[in-house]
Amino acid sequence: MAKEKIILTGDRPTGRLHIGHYVGSLRRRVELQNSGLYDKTFVFIADAQALTDNMENPEKVRQNVIEVALDYLACGLDPAKSTIFIQSQIPELCELTFYYMDLVTVSRLQRNPTVKTEIQMRNFETSIPVGFFTYPISQAADITAFRATTVPVGEDQEPMIEQAREIVRRFNFIYGDTLVEPEILLPDNAACLRLPGTDGKAKMSKSLGNCIYLSDTADEVQKKVKSMYTDPNHLRVQDPGKIEGNTVFTYLDAFCRPEHFERYLPDYPSLEELKAHYQRGGLGDMKVKGFLNNIMQETLEPIRNRRKEFEKDIPAIYEMLRKGCETARETAAATLDDVRRAMKINYFDDAELIAEQVKKFSAE
Ligand code: TRP
Q1: CA distances for 356 relative to 82, 132, 175, 222, 353, angstroms
Q2: Which of 74, 114, 182, 232 is 20 to 30 Å from the Cα of 160, by its Cα?
Q3: From the alpha carbon of 9, which atom of ligand 1 is closest?
Q4: Ligand 1 centroid distance, CA of 161 (Å)
């Protein structure tokens, strides 16, 4: 049998999802889910990982589990096609993590660039929680428990996937071929790799207050687009403007399609022409922002409307998640059976072991 093609990815429930999540991974996942090219899709809410740096804030994590689930459904993830579940409800993941810890050194974890930056951002330098420090190992468990072949994530997750691949190789080398080595799937467009915040800062993040959320109202979206960071030296319309580092143009790179010009800006044949005009001078920020606003409204409106529909039956969302957890547990448990067998800790389902011991002790 050809190897199954399996997608797995997840998000920490520390807030509602924003358009950075959308272009970085969410939009792609929905396409993959609907492509028919994959045998299974798993998408999960990484609440246990969120607790590794929000241990004092369990209520925040709890509240955001449902927010993220609503954002998933609103974007088109479909429980009939994807298993949507909550990380903490799959105890098998803890067991796998515990075994993988034997395969990773402290210095290897210290070299993980994402963990390094996060430690700085959270001022953890002198008091890093062990659970936080080791979350790349638990992330390897998330991925391998479901035999994922393909992990669609943003650029910041690259070190995590690399670390998971190392764990798989080491496990298979020591214990025999058991685990599947995953591949990362990054966005193909540079603007989507790391969408900047509306203030032009490198990352869209709730703590910086520079996010456009998938669930923002039309007014909120418009206000945020109108106050976006552009080229601070582009003071008068006739001045030449810069495209590099100009957030409005980065967003256009991420969201604009040819048909948007036909609909909202028929004077221009393409984004290249719009950029060229801006660089020459004679094109005002407000006109470009108006265009971007039209595109954002068109993109976000159906998402917002679907979310409103799903919000009408919250118990059904929890029930969907509960079922997803059940399916996910079955899959993870099957992998764990293989892992225990490979690691020789399957004492009670191995008749040969008992026979072998009988022989050993009767020979003495
Ligand atoms: N670390 C990811 C994030 O911060 C969430 C995550 C946890 C994840 N486990 C995963 C993503 C496994 C992909 C695969 O968004």
Answers
A1: 44, 42, 20, 73, 5
A2: 74
A3: 13
A4: 9
Q: Which residue is associated with the tokens 């979206």?
A: 221
Rg (CA), the chain: 24
pLDDT score recorded for residue 240: 94
- Rounded to an integer, the average pLDDT of 331-344 is 97
Ligand 1 pocket test: which of 7, 8, 12 has the largest number of ligand atoms within 8 Å of its C-beta?
12
What's residue 194's pLDDT?
A: 84
Cβ of 52 below 6 Å from ligand 1: no
The fold of the 4-192+313-354 domain, in CATH, is Rossmann fold (3.40.50)
Domain with CATH 1.10.240.10 in the chain: 204-308
Task: Quick: pLDDT tens for 57-98.
Answer: 999 999 999 999 999 999 999 999 999 999 999 999 999 999
Residue 192 Cα to ligand 1 midpoint, Å, equals 17
The pLDDT-based confidence of 317 (bands split at 50, 70, 90) is very high
CATH class of 204-308: mainly alpha
Centre of ligand 1 from the C-alpha of residue 100, in Å: 17
* Ligand 1 site, residue 9, Cβ cutoff 6 A: yes
Give the mutation target among 7, 49, 135, 163 for probing the ligand 1 site: most ligand atoms within 8 A of CB. Answer: 49
The CATH 3.40.50.620 domain(s) of the chain lie at: 4-192+313-354
In tens, the pLDDT along 23-69 reads 989 999 999 999 999 999 999 999 999 999 999 999 999 999 999 99
